[in-house]
Every structure is written in C-alpha cells, then in structure tokens.
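Attaching the record inline, Q. Sequence:
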Amino acid sequence: MSQNWTAPPLPPQAPQPEIPNYLVLSIIAAVVSLMMCCLPHGLVSVIFATQVNKKAAAGDIEGARNASKNAKLWATISIVVSGIALILSLVFGLFAGIMSAIGSQGRQF
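Structure, as predicted:
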C-alpha cells in the first residue's frame, strides 16, 4: 500500500529590503582611479559592491548594509582622490610649461 505524500508548504519569507550595491559607481571609480594615479581605492569599492547581493541572499542583511555603505565610501574616496590628482597634475604641468617657456627665451639662437 502506498500513500501519496506531499511536503507541507514552506512558511512565507519576509521580503528582503532593497539594498543598493553601488556596483556601477564602483566600476567607474575603479576605472578613473586606475587611469589617474593607479590607486586601489576603486578596486576596494568593487569588492565591497560585489559582496552586497551575496550577503543579502544569505540573509545577512546587516552585513549587506555595511558592505553597501563601504562600497559607496570607497567609491567616493576614489573619485575625490583621482580628481585632486587630476587638478594637481594640470597645475604642475601648466607651471612646468610656463617655466620651460621662460627658460627657453634666454637661449634663442
């Protein structure tokens, strides 16, 4: 004799909150920081951004929120440092060009 047995229904799970992962911002920050000054800030941001969805799927909502916050922080740091490096390189390049032009005026043949 065999019985048809069905598993009891699973209890409904609470919907997971929407946690931004800032992956696009992190990738942009990584590209900009690698082009400007080869600093790893952008890569750190990408690593944290990829952890957000994994932690949220595993049920670690607090860890996902922390990873999201760290991804945004490191992306911001990367963009600011790269912007400062760009401004400094433009200022020093302009200064070097002016000094080169001044120095070459005395050596005209």
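The chain has one domain: 23-103. The chain has a mean pLDDT of 86.

More tomorrow.
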